Amino acid sequence: MMNTRSSKVFLSLLVALLISDLGLWRHGRRRDISVFSSPFHSSDGICLNGGVSVSSIITGEHLYCNCPDDFTGTHCERVKSIGCYEGMGLNYRGTASRSVSGKTCENWDSHTRRRYLSSDLHAGRHNYCRNIQYRLRPWCNVRKNDQLVREYCDIPVCDVKPFTLAPTAGPTKPQTPTLQTCGHRTVRRQMKIVGGTVATVESHPWVAAIFWRSKSKTKVFRCGGSLISSCWVITAAHCFPEGSQTRLRRLSVTLGKNALNESDPTAEQTFRVEQIFIHEGFNNSLQNYNNDISLLKLKEKDGKCTEETNWVKPVCLPPPLQSLQPGFTCEIAGYGKEKFGLWYLSQYLREARVNFIADDVCRQEEYYGNKVNNNMFCAARPDWSQDACQSDSGGPLVCKFHNRFFLFGIISWGDGCAKEMKPGVYTRVTNYNQWIEEKTSLPFTTARTMFPQK
C-alpha cells in the first residue's frame, strides 16, 4: 500500500510529466518516450507502409508515426538504407557486419563507442559497420592473426539518382556543332594511372597528349589534356613551369593517341600550339596549386583544327558552379606512371574509376587539411587501389550524365599515388567556365542546355 508521502511524490511526478508532454506537443517536437501517449492505433492515412500513429492522451492529436523496421520519415514514407550506403556512408545506420574479405566484424571498443557512437543504436554496443573517423566508406575492425585490422565493409552503394540542375532563366546563345556533339564516345571502357587498365583512345577520345621538344630535338611527353572544342585543349597550369615565357614553337599536341612510343596515322591528329593562356591567379611558388588551369589554342591546318572521328571528339563542360555528391563515380585517364617512384611512364593510355570525396573530409588533418581550397576537390577509390600519378597531370576527370561525358576535373596534384588517405586532388573546372569563355570566345555557358534538367 502506498503511504501519503509516496502519493504526493507520485502526483507531483504525474503533473510534471503531463505539463512536459503538453509543452513538447505545443512546440512540435517528437517525443522519444511516450509515457502519456495512447496505445498504437490505426493511422487513418497519416502513417504509410504499415506505420501506426501515436497520439497524446491529453489532446488526442497525432504526435508521430511509429514505423516498421524497414521504413523511416515523418510518415514512414522512406525505405531505410539498411542494405546499402549513400555517398561515403557517414550516415549509414544499417546492420551489416561483414568485411570485404568475408570476416565478421568485431564489437566496437568502449573508447570508440564513447567518442563516436554514443547516439548510435544501443549506444554503439554492436559490431555493425560504420564510417567514423572520415574514411571513404563504412568499415569495421576484424581479427587477422590475432590482431585487429580495419577493413571496409561488404555493402553496396545505394542507387542514387544523379542530382539535376534547375533550368536557367533567360536566353542562351545558339549551340555550335562542337557543343552539340561533345561528350560522346563510340567504345565502352575496358575496365579491369595506378591500379587502372589499358584503355583504347576511342573510350576517351577527348584525351590530349602534350609534348615538348627539347634542345636536342627529342620529343618528350609533358602532360595530358582534354579537347573541349575543335581548336582548344584544357590542361593544368603547372605543366608549364616557364609560365608566360613558354616557347610555343617547342609545344605540340596529339589527339587520338593510344601509346606514347607508337604512332598511328589513321587515328592521330597532331598540331602546333598557336597560343597559351595560363590562369592569372596561378602562382605555384608556394606549391599550393591554386588555379591550376590553362588553355592551349591549336594552330589551324588548311583553315581548321581537329576533325571529329571515333578517336578524336571534344568533351562537354558542365554548367558553372555545378558540384557532385560525395561518392559519385567518375573516370580518369592518362599516360602517367603505373606506380609512384617508377622512372618510366605507362606508355599506353590507362583508365581508372574514382569516387568524389566530400570537401569537409578531404580537409581533415589526416587528409590534406587547409591545402585543399574551394578551387579543388578530391577523388579516390574506396580501397585506395586506383589513382592518378606522376605525368597524368592535366588529364581529365569526366562524369557521365545521359550518355554524355562532362569534364568536372583536371588532374592536378596529390601526395604519392594510390596512398591511403591521400587522394588525388583535381582542379574544379566548374569554377572557371567564365574564364574559359573569355579566353576562347566559345559559348560554353550553353552547356547547361545539355546537362540533365529537373
List the keywords.
alpha+beta; 10% helix; six-stranded antiparallel beta barrel; six-stranded antiparallel barrel
Topology record:
Layout: H1 4-26, E1 52-55, E2 62-66, E3 71-72, E4 78-79, H2 110-116, E5 139-144, E6 147-152, H3 177-181, E7 197-198, E8 207-213, E9 219-229, E10 232-235, E11 251-255, E12 269-278, E13 294-298, E14 329-334, E15 350-357, H4 359-362, E16 376-380, E17 396-401, E18 404-413, E19 424-428, H5 433-440
Antiparallel strand pairs: 1-2, 3-4, 5-6, 7-15, 8-9, 8-11, 9-10, 10-13, 11-12, 12-13, 14-15, 14-17, 15-16, 16-19, 17-18, 18-19
N-C termini distance: 68 Å
Q: Could you give me the name of the CATH homologous superfamily of the largest domain? A: Trypsin-like serine proteases
Helix and strand element order: HEEEEHEEHEEEEEEEEEHEEEEH
**Low-confidence residue ranges:** 1-43, 160-177, 189-196, 339-345, 445-449
Q: What name does the CATH topology of the largest domain carry? A: Thrombin, subunit H
> Per DSSP, what share of the residues sits in E-state strands of 2 or more residues?
15-25%
Disulfide bonds: 67-76
Subcellular location: Secreted
Enzyme class: hydrolase
EC number: 3.4.21.4
What do you see in this structure?
By secondary structure, this protein is an alpha+beta fold. It has three domains: 46-80, Laminin (Ribbon), CATH 2.10.25.10; 85-159, Plasminogen Kringle 4 (Beta Barrel), CATH 2.40.20.10; 197-450, Thrombin, subunit H, CATH 2.40.10.10. It has helices spanning 4-26, 110-116, 177-181, 359-362, 433-440, and strands spanning 52-55, 62-66, 71-72, 78-79, 139-144, 147-152, 197-198, 207-213, 219-229, 232-235, 251-255, 269-278, 294-298, 329-334, 350-357, 376-380, 396-401, 404-413, 424-428. The strands form five sheets. Strands 14-15-16-19-18-17 form a six-stranded antiparallel beta barrel. Strands 8-9-10-13-12-11 form a six-stranded antiparallel β-barrel. It has a two-stranded antiparallel sheet with strand order 1-2. A hairpin with a 2-residue loop joins β17 and β18. The longest helix is centred in the first third of the chain and has 23 residues, at 4-26. The termini are far apart.
